[in-house]
Write a structure and sequence with these properties.
- By secondary structure, the chain is an alpha+beta fold.
- The chain has 5 helices and 8 strands; from the N terminus they run H-H-H-E-E-H-E-E-E-E-H-E-E.
- The strands form 2 sheets. A 6-stranded mixed sheet has the order 4-3-5-6-7-8.
- Helix 2 packs across helix 3, helix 2 crosses helix 4 and helix 3 packs antiparallel against helix 4.
- The two termini are 33 Å apart.
């Protein structure tokens, strides 16, 4: 604790696999959006390798700090996690990745590095879809997905503080980025998703307007 309080460097190599996988998936989503279609397996592999090459060459910037390149073994493992995921859950052209949001105390959106920011959050993946409940009701739903590289990630993570925060801040982040979801910001509900990159499984929960704050 004394070491951390003194500002000592943190060994982040344990997170390297997940960091690289997230970076690859971000770039795959961006490429699909730029092309206006899903990427082929060959295109995805080429794009992911470009991402890994960049990370191994110059590292990355995160939270205003420059991080060194990841260990090569971890980088290539992260690349394969991303490609295996993409093979089963390809990025669509009308989706967005790594959306940042920062908020002041009153939940007013502010720039990421603004001194007034008291809360910051990054959405791994977001898109809109039509969703119907068991009684045939529903409508247009904002989907927020969080990728996890831990083997045990699953349904329980939908109740985490992180996902509850994303449920509250998700629409505000999308609106703050002025992304075009085709029909403005009028969503009937919100679908939270946990994507386990190891097992390539998706766990989800839909929150409709009548769900109380206690349920969130």
């Amino acid at each position: 604790l004394d070491y951390a309080d003194a500002g000592g460097p943190v060994d982040r190599d344990v997170f390297a696999v997940g960091v690289v996988a997230h970076a690859c998936l971000e770039d795959l989503a961006g490429a699909a959006r730029a092309k206006g279609r899903r990427l082929s397996d060959t295109e995805a592999a080429t794009r992911a390798r470009e991402t890994v090459t960049r990370l191994l060459s110059v590292g990355r910037e995160h939270g205003g700090k420059v991080e060194p390149p990841p260990p090569p073994d971890a980088a290539f493992e992260g690349e394969m996690l991303a490609l295996d995921w993409h093979a089963e859950h390809p990025c669509e052209p009308d989706t967005f990745a790594e959306l940042r949001g920062a908020f002041a105390r009153d939940w007013t959106p502010v720039p990421w590095d603004d001194a007034r920011a008291r809360f910051r959050l990054i959405l791994d993946y977001a898109y809109a879809v039509d969703e119907r409940d068991e009684e045939g009701g529903g409508g247009r739903v904002l989907v927020i997905r969080d990728y996890k590289s831990a083997w045990n990630a699953g349904t329980a993570d939908l109740d985490s503080l992180q996902m509850r925060a994303q449920a509250v801040a998700g629409v505000l982040i999308v609106a703050a980025h002025h992304h075009d979801f085709g029909e403005g910001w009028d969503f009937a509900g919100l679908r939270l998703e946990i994507g386990n990159l190891r097992t390539r499984s998706l766990k989800s929960r839909v929150l409709w307007p009548w769900i109380s704050a206690d349920d969130m």
